[in-house]
Amino acid sequence: MAISDWPAAERPRERLLAAGAAMLSDAELLAVLLRTGVRGKNAVELARELLARFGGITKLLQADLTRVKGLGAAKRAQFAAAVEIARRSLGEDLGAGAALTSPGAVRDFLRLTLGPLEHEVFVCLWLDAQHRVIRTDECFRGTLTQTSVYPREIVKAALRANAAAVIFAHNHPSGAAQPSQADELLTRNLKEALALVDVKVLDHFIVAGSQAISFAERGLL
Description:
- This protein is of the alpha+beta class and 221 residues long.
- 44% of the residues lie in helices and 16% in strands.
- A hairpin with a 2-residue loop joins β4 and β5 (211-214).
């Protein structure tokens, strides 16, 4: 049945306007974003199918949607815009407040930024003395499985940013979020190098898809 044939009080867009977005299910929110369905499926049915196929809303928004039947350029553009709006909003939140007082925002920002990437990158979130984000730098970029990070270049970047502290992050495109021995050794080497210029390493996140593992939370710093 087409959504236009539903009672007005049950239609996702009307429910959102009347009761707020928080009252809608994931499928209903996606249906509002999709606007229309495809042949044989209304927008809610299509949204449910996509959520089941990709395993949830986070993985769906990180997925390559070009091969999904029924999702044309317009719908893919809407999804991409929604993800970018969320990423920029989280980035503004980090810039406005202390990163350590909003670890959830840091994690969400990194998941949205690094999670979908198919190549490995190493990112530095440079912080001032109040632990507010000064800027975010992609310091190194690698292949599908590895990247090379040079402590000397990280120290130079810290000095350019006039940073007092830093949060590192890199992604594992393989999907395994667990830190390797090489990750732990690199973090120790970077921490020692930055200590020479009075820059404190606050955390190191490893992002794999929708996961973001914190070194600080695991006692690895």
